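Hey, can you fold this one?
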Amino acid sequence: MKNKLIRYAIIAVVGSFILYHSVYLEKLSAVRAAAAKETTFDAAAFAQTFWNDALPAQLPEAVNLSELIVQLESEPEQAFAAHSHALGIGNIRYFLVQGEGEVSSISENHVIIRFDQGSVQLETEFVYGNAVRDAVGTIDISDFSNTMDLNRVSEEVNRIIRTEVIPPFREKVKEGDQLAFAGALELNQKFLQLEQVEIIPVSLKIITLNP
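Sure. Predicted structure:
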């Protein structure tokens, strides 16, 4: 009987030893941190792919700004339905546009371009918001787990515009230059104002330099 008790005690000790070393215990905070690290969204990489692939693929389909203005004045509902995009529900919609015109004035924050239907204000200083991200029409909100990641994409796209598109253009542009441009236009379909539209540029090309 005594031998059996000793045997059972030894088995219990060995079993406890094996069980202890086979179960890995980790703090809950460490587990959560590791999980968060694995699922961290790389907004910069996503924005770069968007800029290099999605945007160039859609630029040839960008609506001509002069034609859009005419349609917005005569058939606004059809214009919004045919050419605008938005990720959410509401009156704010975004258009991917292109056009040509003459640089009529240059200020610290804007460049004004005259074209067939009036003028357009190119934003060259305060580039922010979701206009470019949404105007392209290729991003699906369901692909994002939270709005923070979605907003970070806009921030990164806007950073590319501020650092890669605008500076070389501002260094060369002069009044009287002929310019080809493409960019994103934000309009409110309920309170539509077309006096001087503002565009966040994604492409700026000086066609003819003013001597």
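Residues 33-38 have pLDDT under 50 and may be disordered. Let me know if you want another pass with a different chain boundary.
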